Amino acid sequence: MELLQILRVLLRRWYLVLIPPVIVGIITLPSRFQPAQSGGYKTTIRYTAAQVLNIPERDGDYQDVWLASELTVNALTDWVRTSSFAQEVAEIAAENGLQIEPLAIPIAADNARSIGVLELAWHNPDELQIIAEAAITVLQTQTHIFFPQLENEPARVRILDMPIVSPAPPPLTDRFSPFIKLGLGVIMGLGLAFLAEYFDQTLRTKDDLTALGISVVGSIPRYRKPR
Asked: For residue 162, what are the domain limits?
């Protein structure tokens, strides 16, 4: 019975349900014909790293050397997420003619065992190239300043592929924003329909009289024209 009542309300107030989605659609429709806004530019740098070790000739598979390399990459992955790394990158970029705020550089990092991954993003492709080259310089020359266990000897960082700047996809919020707005419009329309029904004091069915405590003796059927 409650489901039938909901359906009756929706059929009776369908125009109220449609008003907010239609308004939202009219507002957002022109933006669908405009070019998608770029998410800026991005580049990815993959590298390996190892500590400089003086290891005598010996038999074995040198698993400890591989483990040391993995730990070095792990340490660099954590370091490139810090403000000190961003500061070093900004200083190197300034030497190449690009003045930027260190904390304004979006930096992400990850690693898969002995392979480090550095992801950079920026709004200008030429400036991003300078930032990427500065990041490589910092990785290859400044590690011993922040890691005393390297004993004043920079870690050996090898770049596996040079950074290639490419357009970043638009943010998910931009791509799905119209659908989210339409969904909110539908929810607002439903709320508007049930709100109007709540304040409507019109009696339409015998169930409305029964809900008020009024006994219904009889009802007059709806008149239908004979065929």
From this structure: 41-167
